UniProtKB/TrEMBL annotation:
InterPro entries: Glutathione-S-Trfase_C_sf (IPR036282), Glutathione_S-Trfase_N (IPR004045), Thioredoxin-like_sf (IPR036249). Residues 3-85 form the GST N-terminal domain. GO terms for molecular function: glutathione transferase activity; maleylacetoacetate isomerase activity. PROSITE patterns: GST_NTER. This is Stringent starvation protein A. Coiled coil: none annotated. GO terms for biological process: glutathione metabolic process; L-phenylalanine catabolic process. It comes from the Bacteria.
Length: 292
């Protein structure tokens, strides 16, 4: 059983990030199809072959069902894969997680409008409006409530990582990327996302795939991304790699990368470049590096 997951731009599509996390973070089988946000054709036009879908993410099941709402994706995947932990198993935690995810799905419009997700930039000197501060205050209330009611000491909202955390991942990206003022507890939750390997993999892909779209930029001074600093790496043309097969695909090595004086091989430029973008974000490469 393999799903088709149709996504938008890695750097800018916040709902696509949610959909991708719902499959990637819970180890569900999928193949990805990417739409082009810089194409003259609209997203709906690019999705003509999977009508009535008109937004991303869209999930196509093996039977051909078309699911183009993230909350519906979460519920359907949880029904089909009860062992995956898409929602918490504890009734209190599960009900809390569903409530918060539904509020995220329908609300926080000022945060979305004022601070579009942009994985390629981080800003400083942002002065939030009163409406934006109200959105941030509401996030603090519901995040603190969820952790107090379920797992006061955990990094995630309702126990282990679940769909509710996938829904708030783009919110964490916005808070971090715009340097928005939040409480210490909210900041710790944002930091959990920035350090999460799946989140970092998505951001690494956003740095090497697709065009930079100026319509998502804002007129603020830029600064360094506030997440973990990756190890330095660069693409190289020659050298003797420490591996003969790509750590992601298992295919023969055709492209090379150097990091910390060591050379590793990959099966294509995309595998190499996404690792150059953030080599610590890729578990397969990390395992290869640590074992070599």
């Amino acid at each position: 059983m393999t799903y088709q997951l149709i996504l938008g731009d890695f750097a800018y599509s916040s709902w696509s990030l949610r959909g991708w996390l719902l499959l990637n973070r819970f180890d569900l089988p999928y193949k990805t199809r990417l739409l082009d946000f810089n194409d003259a054709a609209s997203v709906a036009e690019q999705l003509r072959d999977v009508a009535p879908a008109r937004t991303v993410p869209t999930l196509v099941t093996p039977e051909g069902a078309i699911i183009s709402e993230s909350l519906a994706m979460a519920e359907e995947l949880a029904s089909r894969h009860p062992e995956a932990g898409v929602w918490p198993s504890d009734p209190l935690a599960r009900a809390t997680a569903r409530t918060l995810a539904a509020e995220m799905h329908a609300g926080f419009t000022t945060l979305r409008g004022d601070c579009p997700m942009n994985m390629r930039l981080a800003y400083q000197g942002v002065e939030p409006s009163e409406a934006l501060l109200a959105d941030l205050a509401r996030l603090e209330v519901i995040w603190d409530h969820a952790r107090a009611a379920t797992t006061p000491d955990g990094p995630w909202l309702c126990g282990d990582y679940s769909a509710v955390d996938a829904f708030f991942a783009p919110v964490a990206a916005r808070i971090a990327g715009y340097g928005l003022p939040v409480s210490e507890s909210a900041h710790s939750y944002v930091a959990a996302h920035l350090n999460d390997h799946a989140f970092r993999r998505w951001r690494a892909m956003s740095l090497v795939h697709g065009d930079t779209l100026e319509r998502y930029a804002r007129d603020y001074a830029t600064t360094d991304w506030p997440g973990p600093i990756p190890r330095q790496a660069k693409a190289v043309d020659r050298g003797a790699p420490q591996n003969t097969t790509c750590p992601y695909s298992g295919d023969p090595v055709t492209h090379l990368m150097e990091t910390e004086g060591r050379i590793f091989g990959f099966c294509n430029a995309f595998c190499r470049d996404k690792t150059v973008a953030d080599p610590d974000a890729w578990p397969a490469f990390t395992a290869l590096r640590d074992a070599s």
